[in-house]
Amino acid sequence: MSSTKYNPKSHFFVDHAVLGEPEEADAFGPVTMMLDSSLTPPALVSTNPEIYYRTTSFVRADTANPAKVFAICDGRILLQPVEGKPAKVNLVLKPEVSYSPLKIKYFIYRELDKADLIDGDNALVPIDGSNANQPAFLKRLWEAFESYNASIPGTMLPIVFNADRIGYDALELPESMTIDGAFNRYESGAYQLPRCDAGMQLGRFSERIGLDIILDDGDYQQEYLSELFLFDLAYARKSEHVFDISTISAPTPTKTARYRELVLRFLDAAAFWGSHIKCGSIALHDAGAIGSTERIYSDILRRYRTKDTVCIHILAERGRSYNYYDMPGSKRGLSFELSLKIPTDYCETSGWPILLKKYDAQQEENTIHGIMQSEVDPSIANETERFTALDIIAPGLGGQRFPQKYAPGIKRGVVGPLYIDAWAWEGKVCASFVFINACLTQVFPVPGYFNELWPADAKPAFAIPVDGADYTSWCAYGRSRIVNLGDALSTGAVIQNKVVFDTGKNAASSPAAKKRRLFVAALKDNTTHDTELDNLNVECFTSCFDNGLRYEDYTRHLYGDGFSVYRGTFADGAEVVNSLCLFHEKNLWKRKSFFQLGMTEDEHGAVMGALPAGADNVFFHLEELPFYNPPGSGATGPPGSENVRKFKLGLSCENDSGSIDILFPATDIAIYSLDGCYFFSKGYAAYQTFYSEFAKARVEFRPVPDASYPPIPKYNGEFGFDWLRTGDNTAGTNDPPYANIILNGGYERPKTGDGNT
Predict the structure, then answer these.
(1) How far are the Cα atoms of 554, 586, 587 from residue 562, in angstroms, in the given order?
(2) Hey, which of 223, 249, 459, 705 has its CA 20 to 30 A from 356?
């Protein structure tokens, strides 16, 4: 599997001993039954599963008494009111533990009993030592509150603890605020979000409780393009969340397809709990930890409507779902079955791009055989030049290690089989998941590796202070993608993205400061599993803002220890352009961990201005331009430099019909690169202040030309280093005087009698 083995450790989020049977309206996935509150009394009605998709998974209590609720893991908590249900609260848990290689951003508990935590005046319920059901979380809040007030000299201990101090405030936190914004608010004293420990009792629920699991897609929002959905507090305050296609404004087939893609950002709770079988553990209230198929199925999964559903998520070209770019009448097939079969399935259920599969099984241990269709241009004849690759995250992969690169034959046209462990109980495979990032299409001529590396439209989902300080911020962008880096690294790689916003650190410099953006694609994992390339992998990407950064802080935050940015100069005709390169003090190859594109804020605005209405899924596109014109080549224009590449900056985007357009701004924006890793505009490099300078010296590997082949010299194989010494050697060494070396442009050591130098 991915280089990090999946080994989840969690606490089940409710008291498993008091759960009852699930109902049809409790299931994750396409909605076939929904509660209609307009009826008297409210009743379940049939719905069209192609229109509705529920992302909330529910369990039910089998008792009239409230059941206890617990923290799944260590984390921070945001309590929110529930729309239309004043007696309930929702709870957002932001994990402080890793489920790597799976990335979980939030657990959202829906419909806890408010009275256990907050009273009718929106103050925290006082501690009652005689109440055995009072949550430990509430007691921790009061202890911290009283300890804080006791630390302030002359302060009387308050008897009222208003809930707005922990973020429960619909006025201070409007529903338009993102959940990221609420967790990362910077105003001092506004509120503090409390921590919890795994297994801590958080409250209780009555009748049923829902759980949304949000996958970590980064800490960003789109800036130029409209978004069909936001993880805002309006979403966090719902009693359940259901995607509804009928709510799309001015729907088109393309907009509807984009809306359906949003379900890929969620994970079914039953699949999450089932993924712990045989590779992790789940702690239960008053019952210890469990990990076997029998215990996880009997104590947890059978209480879910999707107890026997495997969720298969596949992201392919440009980060879209497996069948997103299929042409009408020509859908790409796949097969995920308990035996090898011809790929006739599609990666969808009722039109939604997650394949929900159920399997009958006669034994506990089973294997799912996965096959996917690839599309390789037959013009690419050489097997070694063919490229498809994929990365798999799943609980069991039978010792296989991913990501993995394939070179399929022209006729075969499939990738696989993949072997995925599946555990069954009571004749059904237990709920679990399979996440696949795939690169399955290759066209000829092969596009440059530097295209579709950097998503172009992003801003932080959290607010940045506006107080005149020199703030630099950066946000993680998008889910991991797998790309072909053959031209740069001779491998495929899973990449993750970051965008760095420098708002004017060099305000005191001359010329005046300019805001800048740096788009970063970093290697998360690669298809060549040797030690050298593994050393390039970047394990963690963060989002943050800071001010007053020093040079060493900048490089450490962005790249890690040991990195430096060097700046030099080169000529583009009559213009002098600053150059930028990233170096590592101990490993020259580690600069290839990061592929970067830097531009000024003005340049970013100009290129984004080329976008038409209805565009989406936008990446930067670089069109290479002629730059190096060696003497005697017959090319016109300035000679340029053989060490520099020049490009024209553009965009690659989906238009409103879903096809791909390549666009350029009205005025060309030039991008340069010395090493094929760090790409930059002239303006970005000129205003970059976090850099070191190259030494004012060089060593050249100088071939000796044969002058009989003008105008382009022929080289006879004599090579040597040009070097300069600082003065004359002692007499009798046959070395020419120092001045002659300078005048003649070099030094050639005399040959010995046997012809050696």
Answers:
(1) 12, 7, 9
(2) 249
Q: What's the rounded Cα separation, in Å, for the pair 141 and 428?
A: 44
* Single-letter code of the amino acid located at 11: H
Q: Which amino acid is at 363?
A: Q
Say which residue the tokens 């009693």 belong to: 239
Spell 335-351 as b/e; 16+ CB within 10 A means b: bbbbeeeebebbbbbbe
DSSP summary character for residue 124: B
**3-class DSSP state for residue 469?**
coil
DSSP string across 741-756: HHHHT---PPP-TTS-
Distance CA 706, CA 717 (A): 10
* Max intra-chain CA distance, the chain: 113
| pLDDT of 726 strictly over 50 | no
| Strand locations in 268-403 (E) | 281-284, 288-290, 310-315, 334-337, 355-357, 365-373, 375-376, 388-393
Query: At 750, is the pLDDT very low, low, confident or very high (cuts 50, 70, 90)?
Result: very low
Res. 757: pLDDT tops 60: no
Distant-in-sequence, close-in-space partners of 661: CB < 8 Å, separation ≥ 6: 612, 615, 652, 653, 654, 655
Q: What is the pLDDT of residue 752?
A: 40
One-letter amino acid of 96: E
Q: For residue 156, give both structure tokens.
A: 């009387």
Contacts with 6 (C-beta within 8 Å, 6 or more apart), sequence order:
99, 100, 101, 102, 275, 279, 280, 393, 394, 395
Strands 700-706 vs 714-722: parallel, antiparallel or unpaired = antiparallel
Partner residues linked to 482 by β-bridges: 494
Count other Cβ atoms within 10 Å, centred on residue 192: 13
Q: Which of 200, 230, 243, 176 is nearest to 91 (CA)?
A: 200
- Cα–Cα–Cα angle for 669, 674, 679, nearest 5°? 40
Alpha-carbon Rg of the chain, whole angstroms?
30
Phi, psi of 86 (to 5 degrees): -65, -15
pLDDT of residue 2: 45
Question: In 279-413, at which residue ranges do the beta strands (DSSP E only) sit?
Answer: 281-284, 288-290, 310-315, 334-337, 355-357, 365-373, 375-376, 388-393, 404-406
The answer to whether 266 touches 57, Cβ cutoff 8 Å, is: no
Residues 588-647 pLDDT 10s:
888 899 999 999 999 999 999 999 989 999 999 999 998 876 665 555 556 666 789 999
Q: Which amino acid is located at 4 in the chain? A: T
Q: How far apart are CA 63 and CA 65, in angstroms?
A: 5
Confidence of residue 424 (pLDDT cuts 50, 70, 90): very high
CA pair distance 224, 653, nearest whole angstrom: 13
| Neighbouring C-alpha atoms within 13 Å toward the C-beta of 253 | 7
- The Cα–Cα gap between 263 and 354 comes to 8
Q: Which of 11-20, 367-376, 730-739 has the lowest mean pLDDT?
A: 730-739
Going by pLDDT thresholds of 50, 70 and 90, the confidence category of residue 196 is very high
| Residue 172 and residue 99 in contact, taking contact as beta carbons nearer than 8 Å | no
Question: Tokens 């299931």 label which residue?
Answer: 27
Q: 386 or 73: whose pLDDT is higher?
A: 73
In the block, tokens 């760095």 appear at 500
Q: pTM of the predicted model, to two decimals?
A: 0.88
pLDDT, one tens digit per residue, over 515-563 is: 899 999 999 888 887 666 778 888 777 777 777 677 778 888 888 888 9
Dihedrals phi, psi of 180, to nearest 5 degrees? -55, -45
